Amino acid sequence: MSVFLGGTSQFSRATVDPEKIKLADIQFSAMAFTFNKLLRRCELKCLLHEYGEGELTKGEQECIDRCVSKYVKANVIVGEHIQSHGLNPFNSMPEYKKVQDILASAGKK
């Protein structure tokens, strides 16, 4: 019996689709990779590595805001370029290849 859902909940009889779990895992991995890359890049560009205080300075905060904004905008532009030119990201990105394989195997069922 779940503390949050109760024993008679509609979710007590729910099934888990392994294909959806795989897709969610791949999506999470891709997002974590992007976030960590963004974090490393903006940290190197914006933060002094001489920590005198625990809080960010106003200049560091503004730099990080600009860095994140530019990174996100660049990702949007690249995504739009890929879509508009009909390029296939499955050829160069292993995460997309995994998704394509999962979707293909799900379609065969």
Describe this structure as you would to a colleague.
- Keywords: Chaperone, Disulfide bond, Membrane, Metal-binding, Mitochondrion, Mitochondrion inner membrane, Protein transport, Translocation, Transport, Zinc.
- It is found in: Mitochondrion inner membrane.
- Belongs to the small Tim family.
- Heterohexamer.
- The protein is mainly α.
- It contains 3 helices and no strands.
- Helix 1 (about 20-45) packs across helix 2 (about 60-85) and helix 1 (about 20-45) runs antiparallel to helix 3 (about 95-109).
- The protein is extended.
Descriptive terms for the model:
zinc; 109 residues; disulfide bond; protein transport; Tim10-like_dom_sf; mainly alpha; Helix Hairpins; single chain; metal ion binding
